[in-house]
Structures are given as structure tokens and as C-alpha cells.
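Changelog note: in this version the structure field was regenerated for every chain. One regenerated record is shown below for reference.
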Amino acid sequence: MHKRHPHHVRLALATATAAALTGGLLTFSAATATAADSMRVPQADFNGDGIGDVAVSAHGAYVSGHAGAGQIVALYGTATGVSSAKRSTISQNTTGVPGTAEAGDGFGAETAYADFNGDGYDDLAVASPWEKVGTDTNGGALAILWGSASGLTGKSSDVPDPSPSSHDLWAKDLAAGDFDGDGKADLAVGSSSSTIYVYKGGFSTSGAPGGRTTIKPPIQSGTNDHPFGPLSLTAGDVNGDGRTDLIVDGFETQSDYGWNTNYFVPGTASGLNVASAKALKPGIITGIGDINGDGFGDIVSGAGWDATLDDGTPVPDAANGGKVNITYGSASGPAGTTGVTQNSGSVPGTSEKGDGFGWDLDMGDINGDGFQDLVVSAPDEDIDGVTNTGMVTVLYGSAAGLNVSSGTQAFAQSTAGVPGDDEKSDLFGADVKLDDVTGDGKADLIVGSYENAGNGAVTYLPSNGSKITTTGSRTVSPSTSGLSTSGTPQFGAVFAD
């Protein structure tokens, strides 16, 4: 089963997180995106045709004149990949969706997919973290959009906050997985609190879960000034026992901010077990996949910040330009960890202050060799004097682990065959996905950006069976996807995990 993540949410939370970790060096106006894939990294299939689909957030979109109300666009896979020709565009004004589109709701700021009601179609949990609930301006709301032979439709259900007075930003973090191994998809829900609500599988079409529990990892709760709680939630099977484990990215509890610390929380027959949690290397975006093919999920966390803050304070386990940490899985859970930067082996580029390497990442098998491959974004990469235009890097898995010596690839909008051009603040790589959207069994690359001053765009780069290629590539724009381009819709800032 699966999540994400990074996620992560919209502008306010992303910039607050970046400021805490980097002293404000990152220039993102983006929501972080969550990556939460299982050991085998399944893709969403909302219409049950056997081809992967991609749910794209436009959580800053105008809806009926309401700024930032937010929308979701489901791009359905075909033999030629994804485009705006086969899609669903959904907001809170779509018939059947709970709530009403209002300014600043941020519908789609965080998402997670799984077959929550067991009907054979993947469904999509969609958060509106800034939804006004009663007198609480940022109370938050959560809905599940049900999949069908027609894909995602307005048929959906509300998942109410069970404790609205104890936190804000309900559902700002989501992850789906089978945490107790009963064969039913569960849903983990975060907020500004350190308490995470876990809804048991067996959801009815009215949205009622099979039960509900809570866990409280050792992370800091948010306040009105610092609304953190978990930074992201990621689901996947690290120890190979058939139950989904949860990675919780957060801040330590010892101080106002503390340093970013991630925790592995194992799944058991009775659900997630915080008593057996293990601390991991830092990162605010995480993916899980079997890079070395040993049957255990490997944890990859992106730490896209620099080695020092603006005032010179050193940041623990950080590198200028950012890094990713790979913690390999084993029967006992997380095992050895290795770090990768743009200075490692033949990784394209050079580690430069402010690149943001590791801001987002995802995993999938591009060449069908049974090893999960990794895409890492550096959206603040400067290329030939163009600031913050962005770049993504593809690294391939092998029996020896992540291969940083050969076969590496890098893509920017200046790469031959990639649509568009390098432009200031495009943030190419604001989010990334590796999913098979052609049905050939090989993962294709989907890249989100902040093209056209925040309107956003989605770039499709297919696998040719052995590597990512630009042949057949295309851009999917908000204007062709049923979205208003007023304001900054941020189309492509967050993909569902």
C-alpha cells in the first residue's frame, strides 16, 4: 500500500518548514510534496483499467472566483501516457463533494490514494487544511473521492475531525497503507498536533472506517506561530513482514524548533507500534522502495537544505546544496544508511549552496529489472545564470544498492527534447513521480513545476524500457486541464502518493 507525502502542504507550511531548517535560504513558494510508496511502489488506478493514473493538485486554484479554493486533476494513464485529454477536474463545488469552495481552503494540498472501500478501484483522500470549521479559520477538512470505472467522480465522503478543538490544519499530512496486515487499506491522518489518527480499513461508501486508533510519535506539536506536527507521513513495508510501516518526519520535542528527526514506526498485527519506533536520518520528504531487490523496503529521505544557516549555525547531517539519505531495510527494520549528494560519484551537477537537492523524490522501476530506481529534484538549481530554474536527477537501483557511478541522468527544461525553457523561478521538480502511466510495466517520470509565475505545469517524460527518454514527452498545462489561471493555481506542486 502507499502515501507521500511531501506532505506536505501549501505555501505557508512549506516556507515555515524551510525557514526553520535553513534560516530562510530556500526560496520555495511551494507546498512540499509527500512521497509514500510501498516496497513494490504501486501506482494509483482510479478507473481500474490496469494503467497507472496521477492525481495532480492545484490547491491554489480559483474556483467560482474564490482565490485558493483548490482543485484536483486526475490524469488517466493511456498507452501514450498522460495528457489533459483524459482527465477529471474536481473541486468542492463538484456535485457530491463535501463542503463548498471558499477562498483559501486549499482543497488538494495533501492527498493519498488506496482502495479504501475494497471495490477494486483506487480512491483518493483529499485534504483542505485551511478549511474554516466553525470559528476555527484553519480547522481543516478531509474527504475521500471514490474511484469507479469512470475514474474519480464527485461521489465522495467526509471524514470528520474527531477532535477539532485540539489542533488546526486537519489532514495536512496523509499516508495510506495496511498497517495491521488484515488486507484492508488504512489511512493515517496528521495535523498541527503530534497525535496521528489512524483510520482502519474497510471504509463504507459513506466514509465510515472500520475503526480508529491514535499514535503519538516523539515529535513536536505545533502552535499558532509554528503549526508543525508531522512534516510528512510515508507508508511502506521496511521489514518485509507484509504489514505497512510508517515513517514520521518531524521536529524533535526538546526545543521550539529543534532539528528535524524522522522515526520508523513498525506495523504489527495490532497496528502501528510507537513503543518500537526507531530514529532515522533527517529529511522532510521520504519514499520507500526496494532499491537493492532483497525483499525489504529501503527508506530514502530528502534533506534539501544546506550545511549551515544564514547565521553560520551548522545543521546536523546536512550538506551544501542538499542530500538524500538511503537507509536500507532488513528483517529487523532500518539498517545501514548512506548519504548521496550532487558531489557523489557520477551524480549530475555540483553541490552548490541553495540548490535544494532532495526537496522532493520518488521511486519506481524504470527499466523493469526488479530494482527500484530513484528520482531526486533540485528545484532551486541555477543553470547557466538562470536562478531557481530547477533540475531533476534519475539514479538507478542495483543489487549493490543505489548506483551513483553509472547510468545517471539529469533533466532540466534546457535538456534537448524536454518541453519548455529554463526560466527564473520555474522550480522544475517542485514535485516528481515515477509511475507506469503507459501500461508497459515500466515507470515513467512526471515532473511538476511553477511555470508561468506559479500557474504551474506537469511534464511527462516516458520510459523507453531501459531509461527515461524525452521522445514522446509533453507538457500538461492548467489551462487545458479545466483550471482557472487566475492567481497562482500551483498546478503540479503536489502529486498524490
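Spot check on this record: The helical segments are 11-22, 451-454. Residues 1-39 have pLDDT under 50 and may be disordered.
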